Amino acid sequence: MKPDVNRPFACNWSAVGECAIVRVAGPVEVSALSTFADELRHVITTKLPRLVVDLRRVTAMEAAGLDVLADAHQLAIENGGWLRASGAAQWLADLIRATHSTRPLDHYPTLADALPSYRPAAVGATYHR
Hints:
Elements: E1 10-16, E2 19-28, H1 33-47, E3 50-61, H2 63-78, E4 82-86, H3 89-99, E5 106-108, H4 111-114
Parallel strand pairs: 2-3, 3-4, 4-5
Antiparallel strand pairs: 1-2
Helix pairs in contact: 1-2
């Protein structure tokens, strides 16, 4: 089934044990960046600083979306946690490479792979297959 490219941006979170899952859907465009950043900041600072950002339903992401993820990653570390991205397939690695981003972002192929009960947190920027 193809993703609905006309779907509006949506972002919500839920807790799984000691970890938050932030599910993102639709295009992460300039108009959605502040909402995206605010939701990540809210979850990290008021709920759980350990989070997985599930990107499997993202239909497009502006390069500035990487900055939102990297800033949230840093905020999570400052609050004693971590941030992992999951489900973006190859497009996230391609976007990181195309933008020459050097900011750390751990990415896992699936949500299950990213959850801490399955795998310990990695240090630095890694892509897990």
